[in-house]
Amino acid sequence: MKKAFRVPLLSLGNDHSMAPSPRSNALGVRRRNNLACRPLHDPDAENAIILYAPNEEEAAPASDGEEDKSVAMDSLKRLLGLDRDEATREVHVVLDPMLAQILRPHQVEGVRFLYECTTGMRVENAYGCIMADEMGLGKTLQCITLLWTLLRQSPNPRQPTIDKCLIVCPSSLVKNWANELIKWLKGRLPCIAIDGRGSKEQVVKDLEQFASGHGRGNGTPVLVVSYETLRCNVSVLQKTPIGLILCDEGHRLKNSNSLTFQALTELNVQRRVILSGTPIQNDLSEYFSLLNFANPGLLGSTSEFRRRYETVILRGRDADASDADRQLGDERLQELTSLANRFIIRRTNDILSKYLPSKYEYVVFCRLGSLQLQLYKQFSNSRAVRRLLDSKQGRASDRAEGKGGASSLQIITRLKKLCNDPSLLNLPAELEGSEDILPANWRRTQLEPLEGKMLVLDRILKQTKEVGDKIVLISNYTQTLDRFGQLCGARRYGFLRLDGSMTVAKRQQLVDQFNKSEGAEFIFLLSSKAGGCGINLIGANRLVLFDPDWNPASDQQALARVWRDGQKKTCFIYRLISTGTIEEKIFQRQSHKQSLSSCVVDEAEDVERHFSLENLRRLFQLNEASPCETHDTFQCKRCVAGRMSREGEMNYGDASTWSHYNEPELHKMADPILKRSARGIVSFVFQYKSHENAIPMQ
Q1: pLDDT at 455
Q2: DSSP 501
Q3: Which neighbouring-strand residues pair with 244?
Q4: What's the pLDDT tens digit per position in 662-678?
Q5: 675 to each of 86, 276, 381, 642, how far by Cα in Å?
Q6: What residue stretch is flagged as signal peptide (predicted)?
Q7: How do residues 572-606 score in pLDDT, each as one tens digit?
């Protein structure tokens, strides 16, 4: 330390030295960020999709020369990072071009809606919404675009809107969500996927890993987990702030008293998005539960909602309602719709007409066979049914949905199975007096003779194979799938089967195998409960829904498996109903629920008030007099002497607007396969056509 300290100089040779610039950073001094705050993606780029644009204040008036100098100086300050207001300046939020280039117009609209809701731009202090698009419109892609945008951007360029996202879905869709994230984001967003099949210790470890991650150092900002796993382990996540929750198949939250609903409300999350193609399932109380989860308190308490909206609207929808009740019901419906529309987006499959070939959907009423008819009459007049009908406790419609005890549920199930095929029942043990009806050599395991719906199905399968199409067969009962398998084996048809006994990985393998065009198996047997949600079977262009469910949402989920993105051929959907039986009563009740859903969600003003609720309680009466009791209840104004005299505009949610044909006019149907299959068995058909097909029918 004998010499005084001198600032080191950069030698340039010949004793010329260059002193450090006064702007250079000295050792130990934090480096100044000289770059201006900018949006992540260029808002001025061609085809840029802007979700948020800051409100830039107008500059004070100035002379031309001064204005030019001021603009130049401001630009220079921003470029050099010398603008003191830069730290608080907001920037544009622009969709990642990687996603913007693949989104269709209706999907861009959906992403913009989701962003505005989850950032509170629509209503202050309200951050939830429902995406109620019908199946096949790309709800998954729209939500992935939303979460990617929120995780990467915000009006504040120094931090994103959220730092973690939770996706909750049925266990069968966990892997599908993980795969979709990889597919659309090209592996840029790591996620943890938990479907509940691992050990308890591993599940907790994965949840804790997600809970502990924060900020830019969070390596796995997305968790995909099943409803069941989250419900059982919600305590692990209760204390961690979660930026966004996406609830796929969100109609699982229809009951606010369920354990799943209660578990999700315990999470520390403000931004909530529900995905459900069918937000109304059984009643308006379920609709309220969904809206109340998305935005708590928006529609008041449960009792307030029931008093002001539900009771009044349902009274007005009843076919026996007075004019005053209908008027008040319509007024409250309009009020509810106005409130809900701020937080719910609903587009129908009509949008797909621009991208997909035509779809023909049929409701096919099939007469019972001789043996089925005798057994059905015996069952309808049995002591068990008489006791149930004579009971003064509870409504018949409640019993039909299992609320009246196990005995009523057993009777309903047996009648539904009888409509499918008598071999599904353990006869004569399950039906008193059936031993006098069954043929002497009758055995449950025998295939022939086929009757009713099974005979129609046999004909459809034969012709489907002849034309080279593939077909999906869906039933609520695995016993019915067994019967389908027996039929396929006897006819030497190649088939695949997916039901609840299979692992998620095995299910996806079967789907991929079936969708390959060169596959030898042209029939896919599908359990509606195991495969009704999220499975893409575009390898087929025909689908048979063999038996109806009480819940129209379940049937709609199942029906959407083939007519979706990627489909290249004209699609034909067949819903088989046994004429005059309990199945027709179920379809009528579905129509009532579908009519209700259409009013609240679709705002279709022309949905007629078809059914008295009292008529829906006549579940066990067999109507042999009419070829279609459902059509009779519609009080159709387009029919003369039982035949449709003119076409009208069709509304998918209202079967009374569909084209319809009685037995002498079945030749007018568009599908030649159904024409030939219907002979001698089908009594009535409703036909819906999505749109005119630009692709020649195949």
Answers
A1: 97
A2: T
A3: 165, 271
A4: 999 999 999 999 999 99
A5: 72, 35, 35, 19
A6: none
A7: 999 999 999 999 988 887 776 555 555 444 443 43
Q: Mean pLDDT, to the nearest integer, of 354-367?
A: 92
472: phi then psi, degrees, rounded to nearest 5: -110, 130
Beta strands in 234-340 (DSSP E): 242-247, 269-275
Mean pLDDT of the chain, nearest integer = 82
The DSSP line for 6-75 is ----EE-STT-EEPPPTTSPPTTSPPP--SPP--SS-TTSTT--EEE---PPPPPP--HHHHHHHHHHHH
- Using 50, 70 and 90 to split pLDDT, how confident is the model at 489? very high
SS3 content of the chain, % helix, strand, coil (to 5): 45, 15, 45
Whether the bond into 449 is cis, omega within 30 of 0:
yes
| For residue 221, cis peptide bond before it (omega within 30 degrees of 0) | no
> What backbone phi and psi angles, to 5 degrees, belong to 359?
-125, 130
In whole angstroms, how far apart are CA 256 and each of 273, 284, 291, 344? 16, 12, 11, 19
* Count of residues making up the chain: 698
Q: Which of 592, 599, 594, 690 is nearest to 650 (CA)?
A: 690
Sheet of strand 344-345: strand arrangement: 191-194, 222-226, 165-169, 242-247, 269-275, 128-131, 344-345
pLDDT at residue 338 is higher than 80 = yes
Tens digits of residue pLDDT in 231-240: 999 999 998 9
Predicted TM-score (pTM) of the model is 0.70
Full DSSP string of 188-205? -S-EEEE-S-S-HHHHHH
Looking at residue 461, what is its pLDDT? Answer: 97
pLDDT digits (tens, 9 = 90+) for 384-425: 777 765 653 344 444 444 444 335 677 788 889 999 999 999
Spatial CB neighbours of 572, under 8 Å, sequence gap ≥ 6: 359, 360, 362, 541, 542, 543, 671, 673, 674
Q: Report d(CA 611, CA 139) in Å as an integer.
A: 33
Distance between CA atoms of residues 221 and 233, nearest Å: 19
Lowest mean pLDDT among 56-65, 373-382, 474-483, 495-504: 56-65
User: What are 504-515's pLDDT values in tens digits?
Assistant: 678 888 988 999
What is the mean pLDDT of the segment spanning 41-56?
90
- Long-range CB pairs of 638-645, under 8 A, 24+ apart, other chains included: none
Name the amino acid, one letter, at 229. Answer: T
pLDDT at 162: 95
- 246, β-bridge pairs: 167, 273
Q: How far apart are CA 318 and CA 326, in angstroms?
A: 8
- Tokens 């019972």 -> residue: 368
Residues 132 and 345 sit within 8 Å (Cβ to Cβ): yes
Q: How far is CA 165 from the centre of its chain?
A: 20
Angle (nearest 5°) at CA 524 between 277 and 560: 15
- pLDDT confidence tier of residue 500, bands split at 50, 70 and 90: confident
d(CA 96, CA 463) in angstroms, rounded, equals 48
Specify the amino acid at residue 129: C
DSSP for 339-375 reads HHTTTEE---GGGGGGTS--EEEEEEEEPPPHHHHHH
Q: Cα(477)–Cα(588) distance, rounded to whole angstroms?
A: 21
- C-beta of residue 347 within 8 angstroms of C-beta of residue 396: no
Q: What is the residue type of 581?
A: T
Structure token pair of residue 169: 């879905």
